[in-house]
Design a protein that fits this description.
Structural class: alpha/beta
Strand content: 5-15%
CATH superfamily: Aldolase class I
Shape: globular
Radius of gyration: 22 Å
Oligomer: single chain
Helix content: 25-40%
CATH class: Alpha Beta
């Protein structure tokens, strides 16, 4: 693989003083584009919480707005089935480079006036190593729509998209759709994103590719998912720019590993601490938990910013940097800025269902929000932050009352069957099914279907038999101090711009 990334200084410009914006240019890949280096990055939180509305508002306010790149195919399909009442989705689809692709998506999923009450959503095809052409069209178009609308709302501001390395099967198509819409940054976490520089380079040239996929039991065999832009869009391919790639890491070791080779080197890092929301890296060494079952992190899990600076790549820090004084401290020890999730997740432009947002704000105002780091909940095996709320999957009664079902499948793992064929399994599916597929029953204990739970959190939960809706699950970071200050200032709730302006305050003025 041949990376065309320039050195750090060429890519991001010289160091800038606090609250200043340096210009970004990746040599050889973005000859015309110049993008502000942000001080504030809005986190890519969960399925649809980092919505295009939120990302657009953050970008317009001067930060880097980030849309979540997870499950965009299902999100678009379900919103179209709900009738697209404001018309934004159809307007964005009308700008897709190939009208036939857009028309095929509309023909399959759009329902004028929305679904009948009590009618479940039509499913989308599952992720597989041999995806159906309908899914490829939907996946590319859905990422295009989300980024197009965010870019439009950002009014010239920067927009990024966040992917999970664990969901490899969806990444090439979603990345290509985002690039067709002009995405400025791509951020990838929850794994070791060694293939992303090559993937973005290849897609920027519209070249057909074979993206390697991790398959359990593969041995020496190689498995790939293919994407051919010409087969999707035809011979007249639009110009695209190669976005800037930020790897989300939690250790100096991983940052050093990625930076040592031009083929794997990102353009920068986002360094997430253990109190950040969503998925967290497990503690290094033998897993130990406290009396409440939460993982114990130690000195080995603390990232040394001095070592990161020596790598010659810019970095942003996340997890516990949601107040102005923390932003200033990060800039003082060499970070380019911070990534903040929780305060933006609670902003009115986020994708949280309004009732859930109001419940969270009420709890924050009264007794506070309890956020637990659950080492078993996520099918990925990574610890996962869960806000403890009634009527959600954090409630044992609600959890036990949900019949297990894997009907979305984003966190399924490909594996080689005894027959040599490829199968797919998830620890959150019914244990009998998981064991039948060669998994260990112990791996299914206390697992939560994050796919369905997070979809319900943004108001797009599937209806099950007898009209029961999938229950939600809510993730937030453990540091709520910045959100409390914002609530004191804005008792009725706050906007994304309020968050950016708060974080950019000079801390000495707040004394």
């Amino acid at each position: 693989m041949n990376s065309q990334l320039g050195p750090a200084d060429a890519a991001f410009g010289s160091a800038a003083p606090p609250n200043a914006h340096a210009l970004v240019q990746v040599n050889g890949l973005r000859p015309q584009a110049r993008v502000d280096r942000p001080v504030i990055i809005q986190g890519g939180m969960g399925i649809g919480v980092s919505s295009w509305q939120l990302a657009g508002a953050v970008g317009r306010a001067g930060g880097l707005g980030v849309v979540s790149g997870v499950a965009l195919d299902t999100i678009l399909a379900r919103r179209l089935q709900d009738g697209d009442p404001d018309g934004h989705l159809r307007r964005a689809l009308a700008q897709f480079p190939d009208p036939e692709v857009a028309e095929s998506v509309l023909a399959r999923y759009f329902i004028a006036g929305g679904r009948r009450e009590g009618r479940p959503y039509r499913p989308v095809p599952h992720l597989t190593l041999q995806p159906h052409a309908d899914w490829i069209r939907l996946a590319v178009a859905s990422a295009f729509v989300e980024v197009y609308l965010a870019k439009e709302a950002a009014a010239g501001g920067s927009v990024g998209i966040n992917f999970l390395e664990k969901i490899q099967l969806a990444t090439p198509a979603a990345a290509y759709g985002a690039m067709l819409a002009g995405v400025d940054f791509v951020l990838v976490g929850a794994g070791i994103p060694v293939r992303m520089p090559w993937l973005l380079d290849t897609l920027s040239r519209h070249e057909p590719l074979q993206f390697p996929i991790d398959v359990v039991g593969a041995g020496g065999s190689r498995y790939v998912i293919t994407l051919d832009p010409s087969a999707l869009l035809g011979p007249k391919l639009p110009a695209v720019s190669r976005p800037i790639f930020l790897a989300i890491v939690s250790s100096n070791t991983l940052a050093t590993y990625l930076a040592r080779d031009a083929a794997t080197r990102p353009d920068g890092f986002v360094v997430e601490g253990a109190i950040a929301g969503g998925h967290n890296a497990p503690p290094r060494g033998t897993l130990q938990v406290d009396d409440d079952g939460e993982p114990l992190y130690g000195p080995r899990d603390v990232v040394d910013p001095g070592h990161l600076s020596e790598l010659g790549l810019p970095f942003w820090v996340a997890g516990g940097y949601g107040r102005p004084e923390q932003v200033a401290a990060a800039r003082a020890f060499g970070a380019s800025g911070v990534q903040v999730g929780t305060a933006f997740a609670l902003a009115r432009e986020s994708g949280l269902a309004p009732a859930i947002r109001q419940q969270l704000l009420a709890n924050l105002r009264d007794e506070g929000i309890v956020v637990r780091t659950d080492v078993l909940a996520s099918p990925t095996g990574f610890p996962f932050k869960i806000a403890q709320l009634p009527n959600t999957l954090s409630d044992p009664i609600v959890y036990e009352g949900r019949r297990r079902l894997c009907n979305l499948g984003y966190l399924r793992t490909p594996y080689v069957k005894t027959t040599g064929e490829i199968g797919y399994r998830c620890p959150a599916e019914p244990p009998v099914d998981y064991v039948r597929k060669g998994g260990e029953r112990a791996d299914t204990v206390s697992r939560i279907c994050l796919c369905n739970g997070l979809m319900a959190t943004i108001g797009l939960g599937q209806l099950r038999r007898v009209g029961r809706a999938e229950p939600p699950v809510v993730t937030l970071g453990a540091d709520l101090s910045g959100a409390r200050v914002l609530l004191e200032r804005h008792p009725g709730g706050w906007s994304a711009r309020d968050v950016v302006e708060y974080l950019e305050e000079q801390p000495e003025l707040n004394a």
